[in-house]
């Protein structure tokens, strides 16, 4: 490394008379540092001075200085992976293994990155569309009515006034004149385009009068009851012949129907935006 120092009037650089003394590395305009090492890092000062003598015998000296900061950078000499069998490591699924990457001292300090198969990681994104449904306590079913009655079953239908939603669970409650209300979840029902919902009540007693009502529920709460209505199952002597029954017995009165099998547990729908990367 060669540094240049130039003094006005051609005077040579000499040691300063001001204490403490400056370590004089060289005289003249050039300073050559061979085989630069970290120890050479620091501030180098070039000082120029000239002395003028007047005829009166008065001596005047003038000195100026300039400083340069020298920073010595040090490349790393080696890098090693430290760990058990770090060169070829065999791992089982669900194992946890730690590796440490160590680099020799350098200046500036080395930035360490890991790559797989000599490649930087690729970031892959994917978007999934979703429908957001704001859920609240369900509304009460309405217009409950019995459509068909036989000796041991009845078909009942009701309106649910909210369309294009995730339907809540429905619970039918039934009672005879001399008993308390008992409820059973509706697990099989038909829904037409007008949100008219129908289901069948089975295993009823013959020639028996029942009251029926229905309510809706979800994870937030339950609705009020629908209206209640009564029906009486037929006796065996008045059973409707199979050929005269409507098909299917729980079909809605109007509109295209779809059959729904309801899970016992309420299912919530959510959305995710997936960001995946691999190394």
UniProtKB/TrEMBL annotation:
SMART domains: FN3 (SM00060). Residues 140-236 form the Fibronectin type-III domain. One of its GO terms (biological process) is homophilic cell adhesion via plasma membrane adhesion molecules. It comes from the Eukaryota. InterPro entries: Cell_Adh-Cytoskel_Orgn, FN3_dom, FN3_sf, Ig-like_dom_sf, Ig-like_fold. Pfam families: fn3 (PF00041). Keywords: Disulfide bond, Signal. GO terms for molecular function: axon guidance receptor activity. One of its GO terms (cellular component) is neuronal cell body. This is Fibronectin type-III domain-containing protein. It comes from Dreissena polymorpha (Zebra mussel).
